[in-house]
Amino acid sequence: MWPGPGARGASAARPGRGPATLPDMASESPPRAYRRLSVEERRRQLLAAALELFAHRAPEEISLDDVAETAGVSRPLVYRYFPGGKQQLYEAALRSAADELERCFAEPPGGPFTERLGRVLNRYLAFVDEHDTGFGALLQSGSVVATSRTGAIVDGVRRAAVEHVLRGLGVTGPGARLRMAVRMWISSVEAASLIWLDEGKEPSRDELRDWLVEQFVAGLLATAGRDGQTAGVVREVLAAEDSGGSVGGLLRRVLPLVGEAAHLR
Amino acid sequence: MWPGPGARGASAARPGRGPATLPDMASESPPRAYRRLSVEERRRQLLAAALELFAHRAPEEISLDDVAETAGVSRPLVYRYFPGGKQQLYEAALRSAADELERCFAEPPGGPFTERLGRVLNRYLAFVDEHDTGFGALLQSGSVVATSRTGAIVDGVRRAAVEHVLRGLGVTGPGARLRMAVRMWISSVEAASLIWLDEGKEPSRDELRDWLVEQFVAGLLATAGRDGQTAGVVREVLAAEDSGGSVGGLLRRVLPLVGEAAHLR
């Protein structure tokens, strides 16, 4: 997902080996040749190396030496781009990952809502799958690199997710209740992602996706019972659903169970 | 909720004024008299003062001077009990709050599950209400006092909450799916609590409680459609419900909405 060399493909990702021109080359053994990269390309390369590392190990286990080695550059070069050291690099990598994650949320309108939500979750779960350890570490409180700034980046992603879901529902002026319901679901998806990583990625990504969509529908239905705006949204969502879609399947499996409890109606 | 003197009742909470015996008295003006407290009583008094402060201000805004002043003691005395300074005091106060919170979860068996869950949520929301700022700060990543130890304390409370809910459902060997569903709900309750504090404690505590119970039922129903164990649990929960209870009300409000979408069945 990230451009540039990573731990698993460092040599393949440096195709254009040019002359050794950087002052920090002298300290390396064996000497390596660099392609001349623009400042922006170099920055992206270092961020990609950092993300590769942060994806699979906890931030506290990673040093700037590791980042330099993964990117195939010297440690002074890493410091030249990120003079604030590991914390600055981590925050920049996090910002880059957050942007990538937010791009997952975009989904053109049209068609049943649950299908669109399923496609967003496909991309989101692929991201979680790829960045597993880093994703987990990021959301753990007490990480050594967690600051109010990293917290703000993570909160920004959450807010973007909420806005995308509300827009996907066709809601322009969400009331407090509907917004709270969406935020609760986003939070439960985050929890499910961490549990999923903890449990060796069981169940399968597809099964988790379908279940998360159903959890959203169930939560929305429960909220519709207490909130007129949400009831209106539910009517539109249900009207656009195919009989073979997510909501139809959910109702066919759950309504018989509810029907058994005849004393409750 | 916390024993001992707090900012709002400091003088009333020091009824037995004894002779001034502590060495740090000399530095105070006007001179105060201390009751002789046992080590354990003194420790509790300081934790209570710390919790009182942490409840209403962010940890980074609180100094040991504030804690000393709130408890009506000298700063050296606070350091004598918590030589690790603010971090140690914060962790001890957090541990004490976590114990209190875990006691909220205990609920004797018997009667409809949703009524028991509602009583637990009553106590939990009262706790959130009382400790508002501190509760919020605790759950924000990047707090200056957040460490892996404070993270572990918070995670311990989450785990206890999950176990209590599973026990309340009468489940002894929960499968992965049912456990994940409960963890997702706990997470969404946490999110709802923070939003509730953010939004000036709207809706009312009772309304929020009822809605959270319904969200739990809805999530459990959706999970029952995919998991045999959860379906069995749902049958028992529904069988124990009164017609006028939480599930009955939810079904009466939501089923008509579902009934409108005849093409989905």
UniProtKB/TrEMBL annotation, chains A, B:
Q: Which SUPFAM superfamilies match?
A: Homeodomain-like
Please give the PROSITE patterns that the UniProt record associates with this protein: HTH_TETR_2 (PS50977)
Q: Which domain of life is it from?
A: Bacteria
* GO MF term set: DNA-binding transcription factor activity; transcription cis-regulatory region binding
What keywords are annotated for this sequence in UniProt? DNA-binding, Transcription, Transcription regulation
Domain HTH tetR-type stretches: 40-100
Q: Which Pfam families is this protein grouped with?
A: TetR_C_46, TetR_N
For this protein, the parts annotated as crossing the membrane are none
- The residue ranges marked as DNA-binding region are 63-82
Compositionally biased tracts (Low complexity): 1-20
Q: Which InterPro entries match?
A: DesT_TetR_C, Homeodomain-like_sf, HTH-type_TetR-like_transc_reg, HTH_TetR
Q: Where is this region: Disordered?
A: 1-33
PANTHER family cross-referenced by the UniProt entry: HTH-TYPE TRANSCRIPTIONAL REGULATOR RUTR, TRANSCRIPTIONAL REGULATORY PROTEIN (PROBABLY TETR-FAMILY)-RELATED
Q: What is this protein called?
A: TetR family transcriptional regulator
